[in-house]
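Study this protein:
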Amino acid sequence: MFKPVIYACLHIIPILVCLLFLAGCGPSVDRNGLNMEIAQATIVDPTTTASLPDITPTVNQIAARGVEIEKKLPLEPGGTAQIIHDQTCAATASKKRAAGGDEYKEGRFERPFDKEMNYLPALDINRAELFRPKDGWIYLKIHLMDEPAQAPVVYGVELDLNIDGRGDLLIQALAPETTDWAETGIKVWWDSDGDVGGQVINRSDPVGFKGSGFESLKVDTAGEKNTGQIFTRLNERGLDIAVSEEIIGGVNGKFTWKPYTDGVPYSPTRYDINDYYLLIEAGSAIQGEKDYPLKELFSVDNTCRGLSGLMPSGKEQGVCPP
């Protein structure tokens, strides 16, 4: 008489075991009876370096695979500035000449004039400043005698990262469009074979030198190549450039920096320009010199090289006098 019941129980027990097993596979329940959320995988932007400080504000971007990421933006430069003062030509512009500062053999240009010796104040550097507040960026301010000019004019800085007198990186930027940090028309060129500077470093080669110059394009914001490392913005009569500390070797990086303006602009592959053109070809901005007026090299201005990250020993190539 108990056999049906036994058989029924034997059928029911496996069903109960299955139900208990399935229940154990469901979401966990905390003490309050609330379902605990399952952790989601974190997607990390491969271009982000963990050592960079947490900098705000940020701007959202859409990554190639549709993942929304945040791009770090520079802040405001702080601390004590390193300042380079430069010769200007406003006082002698009507006479179609530079007052001084055009030292061609040393690669110092004071040529904010077109080929007819008409003055171009938007290319004339008054002074430049460098700030290193250790917030993930270095900041450069280039102050001009007029507001920055539009394309094709470029503004930028040449960086020598091992202080051997040969530039390693050439940063080029079109005039910014706003006072907010942005990545408008920025390119960075690299000298991958080390021939910038020619056969005689920091001097114009006596017979000229035509190497490959800055031949490798490392950053191109218009082409979305390696973005997020350099930003620019307008300042009063000039522009600011923010460069990621990663580019200059980290927070304690040592380098020289040489701001410049270029109204032509000349190809990065022609650097150093005073090696590419002989003085007789380039001409001179100084009245009274035999090569006056300007010829093949015009509409350019630069400063001496500022030294950052160490005290000068006197052996550095081409740096500004103390």
Observations:
- The chain has one domain: 80-308.
- The first helix runs from residue 3 to 24.
